[in-house]
Amino acid sequence: MTEKPDHIGHRKRLRDRFANGGGEALADYELLELCLFQAIPRQDTKPIAKLLLKRFGTYAGVLHAAPEDLRDVKGMGDAAVIALKTVVEAATRLARAEILNQPVLSSWDKLIDYLRIGMGQKKTEQFRILFLDTRNKLIADELHQEGTVNHTPVYPREVVKRALELSAVAIIMVHNHPSGDPTPSRADIDMTKQMRDVGAPMGVTLHDHIIISRSDYSSFKAMGLI
pTM for this one? Predict the structure, then answer.
């Protein structure tokens, strides 16, 4: 897979297409190639990009794959893994910037985009808390618990304690369903009510509980569950 002159020309043509037409001008495997150019300077990255898509299914699946799984693909070393993970981190920070210092309840679509980028592709459940001030602006986004593929323990009193430490007056709970189905379970519903009831006397309002999956989400507020 040593790079030949035609591969060098291919890289230039791909860069030119991106420069002139943006990401929409490239197929998924070509965009992956572009991401890998700097990390893999002396090889043809097209076969690697196609192997990645074959293994992980989609562009998003590749970017969110575990580092150890990415390294299993022929041609992928540490530098290449870091290159892809840098793309994910950049996307996450851009999405976060869209909601920082904004009332999150009136920036709903941007909030969902941010959560989907950060959590939608996770293979294990994460439980995050968004802490809000009196104007519903985001104070902090913190990982509260991380569990197995289908169970994350949640402790409402710890969440409320942290809200008070941050001077937050409201929270939005968020967790992901790796199964892809964002439908709340009975345990999700019971825990949400418990969180609401523990927080209310302490002046901490539960605005919503959002369940994120790879392609969809559920809002407890919209479903009338809060």
Answer: 0.73
